[in-house]
Amino acid sequence: xxxxxxxxxxxxxxxxxxxxxxxxxxxxxxxxxxxxxxxxxxxxxxxxxxxxxxxxxxxxxxxxxxxxxxxxxxxxxxxxxxxxxxxxxxxxxxxxxxxxxxxxxxxxxxxxxxxxxxxxxxxxxxxxxxx
Length: 131
Prior knowledge:
26% of the residues are buried. The protein has one domain (14-124). The chain is globular, with a radius of gyration of 15 Å. It is of the alpha+beta class. A hairpin with a 2-residue loop joins strand 2 (23-31) and strand 3. It is built from five helices and four strands.
């Protein structure tokens, strides 16, 4: 698969609110691979592992998502990308399309105009997941 896809696991531009089920945890905004806005909403309650242990930073947020997004070398990655409407591997777009959720815990991200807007949406997936 090398040579056909570029391995790029760094968030360039992303903005949203991290949630634990229906509990908003913190707002974040990343621009040009830099955390330019962070606001705690929950008084550090329920934070994911990386930000909780290492502090909220670009690196901790990026590492959080790296654990949650299928890598570009995964078996059948082409079929997966086609199924969700992507022509090429796009780390940020994969985060948006799954709302940063991975079915192993209760963390997810609410984006302003795309994807799930509530924990109910995450659980039922009745929202328009892919455009």
